[in-house]
Amino acid sequence: MDRVEVSLQEARADIRLKPGAPLEVKTLRTTVIRAGFTPTWIRFEAVGQVVEQDDRPLFKVSGSDQRIPLAENETLRTLRQKAAGK
């Protein structure tokens, strides 16, 4: 990790990874739980592209080989339509 900021008042933690470091959601969730908190959701920002593998949508993080599985939902359908020029 490159930087961590915690706000108890906002019930939020901002964790910044070093460039090129992989995001490991399970490790992040476990770390938060061990620190005594209950994560309800995780939001992350990354640069990359949506790719398909075995008919499953994945997010390929730029500058790495990391691929994160995506849930099929309206947001993903909208991204696919924009990418197709529709």
Number of helices: 2
Inertia-based shape: elongated
Mean pLDDT: 84
Spatial arrangement of strands, main beta sheet = 3-4-5
Structural class: alpha+beta
Structural overview:
The chain has a 3-stranded antiparallel β-sheet, with no helix packed on it. Helices cover 23% and strands 29% of the residues. The chain is elongated and about 45 Å long. The longest helix is centred in the middle third of the chain and has 10 residues, at 25-34. The protein has helices at 25-34, 74-83, and strands at 3-7, 12-16, 48-53, 56-61, 67-69. The protein starts with a strand and ends with a helix. It is an alpha+beta fold and 86 residues long. A hairpin with a 4-residue loop joins strand 1 (3-7) and strand 2 (12-16).
Provide a brief overview of the structure.
The protein is α+β, with helices and mostly antiparallel strands. It is built from two helices and five strands, in the order ββαβββα.
